[in-house]
UniProtKB/TrEMBL annotation, chain A:
Belongs to the binding-protein-dependent transport system permease family. CysTW subfamily. This is Putative spermidine/putrescine transport system permease protein. PROSITE patterns: ABC_TM1. It is found in: Cell membrane. It comes from Albidovulum denitrificans. The chain crosses the membrane at residues 51-80, 101-123, 143-165, 186-207, 213-234, 246-268. GO terms for biological process: transmembrane transport. It is a multi-pass membrane protein.
TrEMBL record, chain B:
Keywords: Cell inner membrane, Cell membrane, Membrane, Transmembrane, Transmembrane helix, Transport. Belongs to the binding-protein-dependent transport system permease family. Residues 54-247 form the ABC transmembrane type-1 domain. GO terms for cellular component: plasma membrane. It is found in: Cell inner membrane; Cell membrane. It comes from Albidovulum denitrificans. SUPFAM superfamilies: MetI-like. This is Putative spermidine/putrescine transport system permease protein. The chain crosses the membrane at residues 53-77, 89-112, 118-139, 183-208, 228-249. It is a multi-pass membrane protein. Its main location: membrane.
Length: 277, 261
């Protein structure tokens, strides 16, 4: 009878996570009459939907790759760069705040900075004679969204990779240098291979994070940039695709992409933990 | 040389993080031409819609926290005590909300619980509020569960339970008077994360048509010039306060533990 204690939790998960998700997944393979079909999925392969997936994936890849790179550099600088210990605690706290500061307010922060009348835009224009707009930069674009997403991607990377870098043992470095390895050689042949699963795993997590981000994108671009979450949002609101089951298929595609990314993350994380005992 | 490189990386990173915040605050202060003023904040705070949506979101966060505690503490306790073999599975399930995007979950709610379904929750206001509450609880589940489970790891659940039982305590007493006080710090940090998440949430509230702070913020952004930046600054301050409080309670608990041991 011990399972009775899990009943409330199980009911909650089934009613508000599994059943709704299954409704979408099953709906993606059904006609409006309830028969099995693959036409909904086939319907995804139109130019506008494919391109929305493509832009979404590009933004997610760019923001998670840059987020991993910059986050890694910042975490390494904080831990190994010989800066005072006092830097660490504020940086970690700030990372906790910034990784949770997504959504609508984040979009406004960047509009106020890199928008047409933003702080940086105006400073660059009046003091340095650089006209971002004339150079083709627009906050409502691929790069604008990528730069904005970095605000929560970098801190997330810092939070996850710091324990991994902390786990690099001093002895490994000493052993390498006794054997005659230079600094770059140590990084290339010892440290980075050990950290690689962690970095790649975090990359997958950041990817899923960016791919599912709705609020920032909507507040920033309205509907001027066709990425998957924005299209799905419009579809749920008003059936803009004119076919409810095509909406299911789109949502199913989203689950598929984030699920693959997360399975990759979990698998790599298990591999990474072998070294961090 | 190495130290210089480290400093310049941290400095560049710092600039990237500070500029958007500076831009946001600067905009929020420039409603009056030529001088910095708190005019935008005054206008925002006087807006009845701000008060309504803000109150709505605060109440929803508190309800989400209450529901989360009532759901997660007994579950995590039970799993640790009676079904240790189920821990990996339960933990896996609690991580699922990070895998399935919120927009997909809420899409499922709308389709599964619409007016022509077996449980027409979206048909009534109370029903929609309840659905939103469940959605928020789902969003905060990974953080809440992880926090509470980590808290339970630091205490000896089995001995405490047996001791309480031998003194005649029932399950409710054990949970409310033995387990909960012992994991209070963990529960609090989970609660603050939940508060920060719910206050800023947009997608679920917008799609369920509930008057929460997130959708209001987006609406203001589309229609007003300076007010959205004042609102964003307020939202940022709330997030910051929540994270600060987590640090505070964790540090506080470390001190009390050190004093005991």
């Amino acid at each position: 009878m011990t399972w009775i204690g899990l009943l409330p939790f199980a009911a909650f998960i089934v009613l508000f996570l599994i059943a709704p998700t299954m409704k979408i997944v099953v709906g993606a393979f059904q006609t409006p009459q309830g028969d099995f079909t693959l036409n909904n999925l086939r319907g995804l392969f139109t130019d506008s939907i494919l391109s929305s997936y493509w832009i979404s994936i590009k933004i997610s890849v760019a923001s998670s790759a840059l987020g991993c790179l910059v986050g890694f550099l910042m975490a390494a600088a904080m831990i190994l760069g010989g800066v005072p210990k006092g830097v660490r605690s504020p940086l970690m706290t700030f990372s906790g705040v910034a990784s949770n500061f997504a959504g609508v307010p984040l979009a406004f922060a960047f509009l106020a900075t890199l928008g047409p009348l933003g702080l940086v835009t105006l400073i660059l224009k009046t003091h340095f004679g650089i006209n971002l707009r004339a150079m083709g930069f627009n906050i409502l674009s691929f790069w604008g969204l990528t730069i904005t997403y970095l605000f929560f991607q970098i801190p997330l990377m810092i939070l996850i990779i710091t324990p991994a870098i902390d786990g690099l043992k001093r002895e490994w470095r000493e052993a390498a240098s006794v054997l005659g390895a230079t600094g770059p050689q140590y990084w290339r042949m010892v440290a980075l291979p050990i950290l690689f699963p962690s970095i790649l795993g975090t990359f997958a997590l950041l990817f899923a994070n960016a791919f599912g981000a709705v609020a920032t994108a909507i507040a920033l671009t309205g509907s001027s940039l066709n990425i998957v979450p924005i299209m799905l949002f419009a579809q749920i609101r008003g059936d803009v695709l004119g076919d409810p089951h095509l909406g299911y298929a789109m949502a199913f595609g989203m689950i598929l992409v984030t699920a693959v990314a997360n399975v990759l993350y979990i698998w790599l994380r298990i591999r990474a933990e072998r070294w961090l005992k | 040389m190495k130290r210089a490189a480290a400093w310049s990386i941290l400095l560049l990173g710092g600039i990237y993080f500070i500029l958007p915040l500076a831009g946001m605050v600067e905009f929020s202060l420039s409603m009056k031409r030529g001088v910095y003023s708190l005019e935008a904040y005054r206008v925002v705070l006087a807006d009845p819609q701000f008060r309504q949506t803000f109150t709505y979101s605060v109440v929803m966060s508190l309800l989400t926290i209450l529901f989360g505690v009532l759901l997660v503490v007994p579950t995590a306790f039970w799993v640790r005590l009676k079904m240790p073999w189920a821990r990996p599975y339960v933990e896996f399930l609690t991580l699922m909300p990070l895998v399935i995007p919120a927009i997909v979950t809420v899409f499922g709610y709308i389709r599964l619980y619409n007016t022509s379904s077996w449980l027409p929750l979206t048909g009534t206001l109370m029903g929609s509020n309840f659905l939103l509450l469940m959605g928020y609880a789902m969003l905060s589940l990974p953080y809440m569960y992880r926090a509470v489970d980590t808290g339970l790891r630091t205490i000896d659940v089995a001995t405490l339970t047996e001791a309480a039982q031998s003194l005649g305590a029932g399950w409710t007493t054990i949970l409310a008077r033995i387990i909960l006080p012992n994991v209070l710090v963990a529960v609090l940090s989970g609660a603050f994360v939940t508060f920060a998440i719910v206050m800023g949430e947009f997608t679920m509230a917008a799609l369920l048509n509930r008057p929460a702070f997130g959708p209001y913020l987006q609406l203001m952004g589309a229609n007003k010039a300076y007010e959205p930046f004042a609102l964003s600054t307020i939202a940022f301050a709330i997030t910051w306060a929540c994270m600060g409080l987590i640090q505070l309670v964790t540090r506080f608990s470390k001190h009390t533990k050190a004093a005991q041991g």
